[in-house]
Specification:
With 79 residues, the chain is mostly helical. 78% of the residues lie in helices and 0% in strands. It is built from 4 helices and no strands.
């Protein structure tokens, strides 16, 4: 289905709601959904600074790879 069709179906469903509390609940749900979708990928200077700091921390630290952890876990289990 194309977006216009989906929106039309959604509008029809909303128009069927009679209870004001149901409409309020739906509004809160949709508002939260839209808020989550628009805020997830917002690149702010603060977020970019945190990412740069995290990257620098990772690059300056000796890390344990997933494979190393899996290998050590197998050794622990078999001992």
């Amino acid at each position: 289905m194309i977006t216009a069709d989906l929106k039309s179906i959604l509008h029809e469903q909303i128009d069927r709601l009679e209870d004001p509390q149901d409409v309020q609940d739906l509004l809160l749900t949709v508002s939260e959904f839209v808020s989550q979708r628009t805020n997830i990928f917002t690149e702010t200077p603060a977020l970019l600074a945190q990412l740069e700091q995290a990257l620098a921390s990772v690059q300056s630290t000796k890390l344990t790879t997933h494979d190393q952890v899996a290998s050590e876990a197998k050794q622990w289990i078999t001992q």
